[in-house]
Design a protein that fits this description.
6-stranded antiparallel sheet; 6 strands; about 140 residues; globular; 3 helices
């Protein structure tokens, strides 16, 4: 990744695409959890048996976490792209830009024969006014 694709830059661009009037000077967060079952992706689950994809976007960084079949990968993009903990699925080598995250999700779905229930995404944010825009974006991924 180039320096213009650092975590803070990408997060700010993502936020402004959802809400052009939003300011990125205050601390903000968006945490999106996708599950393969057609019900809300609760944050209480067993990562050794679950299949999940999480996308966390903060003012200063963003990252993904994928678990399936008892293995997992967690990648964070801040001033550099790095593994946080484990990378059992070698996602570090294929991490896209934030605006292209839908491609990574579809790649994981295809590679592992799963389908994430986007309509049932769990969204946690301290910006409730843009939650509908976030949900629309998630469903289009």
């Amino acid at each position: 990744m180039t320096t213009r694709d650092d975590g803070a830059f990408a997060a700010r661009a993502w936020l402004r695409e959802r809400d052009p009037a939003a300011t990125s000077t205050e601390r903000w967060h968006v945490e999106i959890a996708l599950d393969v079952i057609a019900e809300s992706a609760a944050y209480d689950f067993d990562e050794t048996t679950a299949t999940r994809f999480h996308l966390d976007i903060y003012r200063e960084e963003w990252g993904v976490w994928f678990c399936h079949g008892g293995r997992s990968s967690r990648i964070v993009v801040s001033d550099a792209v790095r593994v946080l903990g484990r990378d059992d699925y070698s996602l570090l080598a294929v991490m896209p830009r934030l605006r292209e995250i839908g491609g990574l999700i579809r790649r994981l779905e295809s590679a592992h024969g799963v389908q994430f229930a986007r309509a049932f995404a769990e969204v946690r944010t301290n910006m409730p006014a843009i939650e509908p825009a976030i949900r629309t974006w998630v469903e289009a991924l």
